[in-house]
UniProtKB/TrEMBL annotation:
It comes from the Bacteria. Its EC number is 3.1.-.-. It comes from Negadavirga shengliensis. Belongs to the RNase Y family. Residues 89-123 form a coiled coil. Endoribonuclease that initiates mRNA decay. Keywords: Cell membrane, Coiled coil, Endonuclease, Hydrolase, Membrane, Nuclease, RNA-binding, Transmembrane, Transmembrane helix. Residues 337-430 form the HD domain. This is Ribonuclease Y. Gene3D superfamilies: Hypothetical protein af1432, K Homology domain, type 1.
Amino acid sequence: MGISLYIILAGAVGIVLGAILAGLFIKNNSKKIETEAKEKAKSIVREAEITAEGIKKDKILEAKEKYLRLKSDFEEEVGKKKNILITNENKLKQREQLLSKEMEQLKRKEAELDSKKENLSAQLHVVQVKKEELDKVTQQRITDLEKVALLTREEAREQLIEMLKDEATTRASSHIKDILDQAKLSATKQAKKIVLDTIQRTATEHAIENCVSVFNIESDDVKGKIIGREGRNIRALEAATGVEIVVDDTPEAIIISGFDPIRREVARLALHRLVQDGRIHPARIEEVVAKTEKNIDEEIIEIGERTCIDLGIHGLHPELIKMVGRLRFRSSYGQNLLQHSREVAKLCATMAAEMGFNAKLAKRAGLLHDIGKVYPEEAELPHAILGMELAKKYKEHPEVINAIGAHHDEIEMTSMLSPIVQACDAISGSRPGARREIMDSYIKRLKDLEDLALSFDGVNKCFAMQAGRELRVLVDADNVDDTTAGKLSFDISQKIEKEMQYPGQIKITVIREMRAVNYAK
């Protein structure tokens, strides 16, 4: 037991001594580390101070360099401005010297003028004195003459005037008669010369419009696609365009027949697109025809603009430009209206220039003289009056307005351009081969035939075909049933018999097509 206690005590003493020794060791190390840290910190501070001092010196040097550079730039700028000021100052001095010289010259001239003015005043005074003396002498002589002739001055003047008046009237009458005789002899000759020169200087091609267009195809296999199963494609095309499609034995050609040039052109372009696309069926035909009609409207505007540019006519209202384009697809007595109007415009310009009038205004009147024929709405006015109203509506020149309205003598001519337009219209229309009167009457008869059918209720569209021997009437399926369609065909035939004159017979076909359309969503 005693030994164990001793051992325990000895162990405790050893632990205490170890702890004391460990504490002393740690303390000595801590002091050493602290000392090293302080020395390191001092070293870092010294390095930082040295680095800061170097940076400071660099910044100071950089600032000094910048200052010197700015100072140099400033001094250079100041030097330039100073030179400019010196230059301006020298110019001002030179101008002052010039002004001083000019002022001296002006003063000398002013002195010279004053001297001349004094001389003139003296001369005027002398003249005034002499005039007074002359008036006195003249009055004395008049008084002496009145005593001798026993007439006053007024009476003598009246007698002299009457004698001179009679003599002047006689001579003037003789001269007027000679001038009129000479004018009558030369007027006709000069007028013929102007007209002939105008015609010779205007070269225009003449192409009489017809009612048939030929559509060329690459092979006869395409004809079957155009006709379609049981003819449904060709019927759809005829119904959409209002023309007759003739597919016969003519190799590689299809004939498009119709009196309206716009319809024929729409049908031709639609056929061209359908053949190129290869998809030919009723729905596609209607879609292509609708797009083609829109393209034709755009082409009409383009034709009008191109015509105005070619003729050098500017400032025309957009609606008038569109009507000029529509002239391309209309004809008068078989003569294309746009070709006719262009020719009349050129003839008017040439004739007006020969006669010394405004050639540009005459050309404008010549181009617009027939725009009443292409007015899109039905009107009961003559085309000349209608064209005049349109020109007045779109603020055309008064002389142009009168020339349009008077070129067929519907109104009185108040401008010298009016007889020029009338004469040039006659020149263009009377050229050999320029017109064909049968064509115009034929087209009018077909138009009247269509208008007659359109006057019935329920009729949507109407197309005259086969040179007027067939009338196809498209009706609204919702408003016209099968029984009414038959009655409508009979009523139209009776009205045609009563109101129209025509050779042979006319076939009236009423087409009622029922379509049911739904959409799957």
